[in-house]
Amino acid sequence: MSEKVYARNVEALKNGTVIDHIPAGLGLRILDLFELTSYGERVTVGLNLSSGHMGNKDLIKVENLVLTEGQANELALLAPKCTVSVIENFEVVRKQKLAIPAEVTDLFACPNSNCVSHVEPVQSHFSVRVTEHDTKMKCKYCEKVFSKDIVVAVR
Ligand SMILES: [Zn+2]
């Protein structure tokens, strides 16, 4: 997509955040996980938008909200290649960096159905380790290690 087309897509947003290049199908999951509708701000979601180089994509715009560094890093686990643009006065003022976090708390449920985290009133907690071929997540409670794709797919 050219910069010009991109600018036209985001021009309706005066201040806020555009999460773009989300793999198609993950947009609603991201909306839900990060509770982006809970702030009372206007949220615009585009699903199955055409995107030249990656097939279809999803896109989320949230007014007057900037993701915390922690949220941006958690987003890296779900959609490492998405772009997060901070908009001020209709312009992209910066792109937020997405870095895989060392740990994630209270976001994903443990895939192990026997894990004590499902019955005790505790926040889920995973430590994250990036290996050559995969990103592994280890549950603090049952100490099982999962591929991050397994963990992020649990609902
Ligand atoms: Zn567990």
From TrEMBL:
InterPro entries: Asp_carbamoyltransf_reg_N (IPR020545), Asp_carbamoylTrfase_reg (IPR002801), Asp_carbamoyltrfase_reg_C (IPR020542), Asp_carbatrfase_reg_C_sf (IPR036792), Asp_carbatrfase_reg_N_sf (IPR036793). Residues 103-151 form the Aspartate carbamoyltransferase regulatory subunit C-terminal domain. Keywords: Metal-binding, Pyrimidine biosynthesis, Transferase, Zinc. Binds 1 zinc ion per subunit. GO terms for molecular function: aspartate carbamoyltransferase activity. Its cofactor is Zn(2+). PANTHER family: ASPARTATE CARBAMOYLTRANSFERASE REGULATORY CHAIN. Belongs to the PyrI family. Contains catalytic and regulatory chains. Involved in allosteric regulation of aspartate carbamoyltransferase. This is Aspartate carbamoyltransferase regulatory chain. The lineage of its organism: Bacteria, Pseudomonadati, Pseudomonadota, Betaproteobacteria, Neisseriales.
